[in-house]
Write a structure and sequence with these properties.
Layout: E1 7-11, H1 15-27, E2 31-35, H2 38-47, E3 52-56, H3 64-74, E4 79-85, H4 89-97, E5 102-106, H5 110-140, H6 152-164, E6 171-174, H7 181-190, E7 199-203, H8 209-217, E8 218-219, E9 231-232, H9 234-237, E10 242-246, H10 253-265, E11 267-268, E12 277-278, E13 282-287, H11 291-296, H12 302-308, E14 311-314, H13 325-335, H14 349-357, H15 363-377, H16 397-406, H17 411-429, H18 434-440, H19 445-455
Parallel strand pairs: 1-2, 1-3, 3-4, 4-5, 6-13, 6-14, 7-10, 10-13
Antiparallel strand pairs: 8-9, 11-12
Helix pairs in contact: 2-3, 10-12, 13-15, 16-17, 17-18, 17-19, 18-19
Length: 459
């Protein structure tokens, strides 16, 4: 659909009907032009194409079927809604088969005209969104190329994706933040039989509870304050495709109950409606929480957990597959070149040693940020230890602590991670000198080295 104001061409040889429809549609914000014959329709479409032609089936200088055929040949972005009298239903059906979106019967109800026109534009917007998703898929091409690593644990992940991608089974991907859960979801969809359908993503943690239900299931006009128009939800938009529910552990129990119904019955109602809507959607969910523990503590529905956990895929943290770091580094150096015509940067052995000895609490996402920053600092040249910085200036580690508390990580583990960050940072600032790093932290050298040993930091 063309950007800007929605343009409608009203075509009827009855002047009063044209003026009535023009006033009605302009009152709803549409830009309206008029035509009184088939020939005039074609002239106006050629000079200033509307988004929609609302036309009588029987008009002088060209019948509706003939005009439809010419519109399709002239501009396939122009839609058509037919107006027809009672008793001509067969002709109206024929018109739809020839490309008309819908038809309204005369004498018509004005609300029905507005509803039909509104449905047309909603349909075009949905089609545009799906086309954008398909274009993104073509740009992305094979998402498996973005999942990097050849460690045994990564090989197991590739095998699981290969086995289950083409099924319609629900998949639950779990792992720490930054391990690549969304990349795996992409691979699941684009290697499935639904790859030509939409792939809709929802970050459940990014939406307040008051909006999440409407976002997932849609709402009717007037169903709550601010619901000025009817809106389709993400499940409806994902019909015949896949939906990715990221951070599903953040859902409240009330929304979990409604999600369970979608998984069980493949239907739901929009907020403010009692009409069930059937959908054919594959659900891929992800979480950084231990949902089994959440079930035990009453924060996650047990029945929903089992519905989601049909295929469980665990993504290991980077610290458990450090043999993948050199390959990941090469990939990110190629992805984040200093300039578009630069050769990929190279890490010196000493700089690579810093990366392989780091514990990576932020996982692959943190590694990518460190590599990108190092490439910029080295201006595209060979990356030396001085170019590697794990803690950007101004970053506050308290943010990480807050996130770990929200993730319900055990206290001892949080303390160990904070200590590890402090020791790593001190070593980075003092270029690996243990004694100077210990002085920086006001620790005796013996205590400092005992901590390195206790936390498994080899620097």
């Amino acid at each position: 659909m063309r950007s800007g104001v929605r343009r409608v061409l009203v075509a009827d040889d009855d002047t009063e009907i044209r003026q009535l429809l023009k006033a009605l549609l302009e009152g709803e914000g549409y830009e309206v032009s008029e035509a009184s014959s088939g020939a005039e329709i074609l002239t106006l479409v050629a000079s200033k194409p509307p988004d929609l032609v609302l036309m009588d089936l029987r008009m002088p200088e060209g019948g509706g079927i003939e005009i439809l055929d010419k519109l399709n040949a002239q501009d396939d972005e122009v839609g058509a809604i037919i107006m027809t009298a009672y008793g001509t239903a067969n002709t109206a059906i024929q018109a739809i088969q020839r490309g008309a979106f819908d038809y309204v019967t005369k004498p018509f109800e004005l609300d029905n005209v507005l509803l039909t026109v509104g449905r047309y534009f909603e349909h075009r917007e949905l089609a545009a969104e799906v086309e954008a998703l398909r274009s993104e898929m073509l740009i992305t091409q094979d998402p498996m190329e973005k999942i990097v690593g050849n460690s045994p644990k990564m090989q197991d992940i590739y095998k699981t994706i290969g086995r289950v991608a083409r099924s319609d089974a629900t998949v639950l991907i779990w792992g720490e933040t930054g391990t690549g859960k969304e990349l795996v979801a992409n691979a699941m969809h684009y290697n499935s039989t639904r790859r030509n359908g939409p792939f809709i993503k929802v970050n459940c943690a990014a939406l307040p509870e008051s909006l999440l239900e409407s976002e997932l299931f849609g709402h009717e006009k007037g169903s709550f304050t601010g619901a000025l128009v009817q809106r389709k939800g993400r499940f409806e938009l994902a019909n015949h495709g896949s939906i990715f529910l990221d951070e599903i552990g953040e859902m409240t129990l009330a929304t979990q109950r409604k999600l369970l119904r979608v998984l069980q019955e493949r239907e739901f109602e929009r907020v403010g409606s009692s009409t069930p809507i059937k959908v054919d959607v594959r659900v891929i969910a992800a979480t950084n929480r231990d949902l089994a523990k959440e079930v035990q503590e009453g924060r996650f529905r047990e029945d929903l957990f089992y519905r989601l956990n049909v295929i469980a895929l665990h993504l290991p943290p980077l610290r458990e597959k450090k043999e993948d770091i050199p390959e990941l580094v090469a990939y990110f150096c190629n992805k984040h070149r200093f300039t578009s015509d630069s050769e990929p940067s190279q890490f010196s052995p000493e700089a690579m040693e810093l990366l392989t000895s780091h514990e990576w609490p932020g996982n692959v996402r943190e590694l990518e940020n460190v590599v990108e920053r190092a490439v910029v600092t080295a201006q595209g040249g060979v990356i030396m230890p001085d170019h590697v910085r794990f803690n950007p200036a101004g970053e506050k580690r308290i943010v990480d602590v807050v996130q770990r508390v929200q993730d319900r990580v055990q206290f001892d583990q949080i303390v160990a991670e904070v200590e590890r960050h402090a020791l790593d940072q001190a070593l980075d600032l003092e270029h690996g000198d243990h004694r100077k790093a210990a002085e920086l932290l006001s620790l005796p050298i013996k205590t400092f080295e005992e901590k390195l040993l206790e936390l498994g930091i080899k620097r």
